[in-house]
Amino acid sequence: GDNILGLVRYLASSSLLADSSEYRHGKMVFFDVIGLQAVAYPARVGILINYLLASLAVLYLASAGLAYLREVLRAVGVLLVAWLGAVVTVAGAALLITLVGRSMSWYTERTVLVGLYAAPALAVILLVLVLAKRRYCGLAGQTGQRAAECSFDAALMLWTALLLWLNTKGICSAFLPALWVGFSLAARPVLFEAAASVGVSPGRFSVFLAILLPPYLITLYSLWNLYEMFLPIMGRSGTQIVPDVVMAIVTIASVIVLSSYPVCLVYLMPSAKRTLLSLTAVFLLTFGLVCAGFFFPYGNDSIRPTPKRLYMQHISRRLHDASGAVVHRDSGVWVNGFDYSGVSHLAGSIPALNDSMRAPCLPAPFCGYPWFLPVNSLVRKSWYLPAPDVSPSPPLSMLLVDKEQLLSNTWRLTFEVSGPHHISLYVREPEGATLVGWSLGEGAPPPPQDNYSQARFVFYSYGTYTAPWRFWLDMQIQVTDPEKPMVEVAVATHYLFGPSRRTPQLSSLLKQLPDWTFSSDWVSTYDLWAF
């Protein structure tokens, strides 16, 4: 909050806002060069530059003749097959790692991704190109010169197609393929001009790499930021997303982008056997170490923390029927892990957290659990440890203060709710009833967010207490049956601070957690009524 306040004050007092006529460019393309210098220009200028570079690439490819274009198209097919093979192979390895229970081995030691996913991806791409070497582009000679040129131009064709597609969609990220198209057009003659007679000399190859250095630097920096974003998210992405498959796909995409041009050099190599064997050995060694449990996912490094994230709520639940009688009541500590592994790594520290204590789903909105936010579709594996009842303060008060008939089949139910500073409201329609209006928003209420919960979620919070929260629901009844409820309303309370936040049972569990965990804990209640 302090950071945002300072930023807003700085922007509000900036001299740029006093006269913005100089900056009326509309949509902008902007990126930074390895964090040292920001580059920005109007999007309309970027569109012109992109079309110019794409036109140069198309003119170059068209000038090569129809016969050569056929060979380039065959080279495109080989590249696509190689990339598809890499995706299938590496995704299969990621699933195998997950099945043996070693997911997220790279969460703390990020270099594991190189040996586990980048090395096999590059090996498969090179293997496909090696297998196609003798037949690729109608190759009849022994040098592989024409095959290398076709492969290079195939990558150029694919980058140009991507550039044109992004440009027509008005996506400003088109600057990245524009860099690859522009610099590759400049680098191509340096690499292949005299290769047919004298081969690719070290000096010529160095100049080739130097020309491609700008797109490589900017792409590597962008990919690094991509990993910096995705990798921490995998630690709190829920129990349904397989993190190894996600990171495998991100790594494959990185390998494809970075190797799209250099892989053509495999056609100029006398043999790629040593390279393939080295990449395979790196993968097998890394795979073996991961399966042996050598890389533990979590750590407590203060500089780069990679904790196991979870939250624990000491809850009490009461489910009422239409007459107001309590039909179900229990209490316990509800434990949720934020990542795919759930709480499997905590079994040694807290033996009670095992599969026999998996939280059952009650016939109530959100399975009868007090979700703070509606992320139940992402976190479907949770654990429930029996514990004594809780009586937090201030207690929840839920009243039906008015019931008004608006039409012959439509009723307005008005409620008053009071309790702690944070409350979650769940509204579920029984069969034969429809929620057609409410005071929580204009127009018809939106449908439930997912089929898993089948209930609408409303989050309510306040600062200083002034009055109970009052709201109404308009229910349309298809068949009048006094035995059936019009609506089911559940209220979950969350005591995030104060004396009611933590119980002795929560404190005891927290003391048993390892130092590589980070837990959010509080007390909650869950009450369900049928009206």
TrEMBL record:
Domain Endoplasmic reticulum metallopeptidase 1-like C-terminal, chain residue ranges per copy: 305-529
Top-level lineage group: Eukaryota
Family in the record: Belongs to the peptidase M28 family.
Pfam families: ERMP1-TM, ERMP1_C
Domain Endoplasmic reticulum metallopeptidase 1/1-A TM: 68-291
Transmembrane segments: 48-69, 76-100, 112-132, 207-227, 247-269, 276-298
Record key words, sorted: Membrane, Transmembrane, Transmembrane helix
Protein name: Endoplasmic reticulum metallopeptidase 1
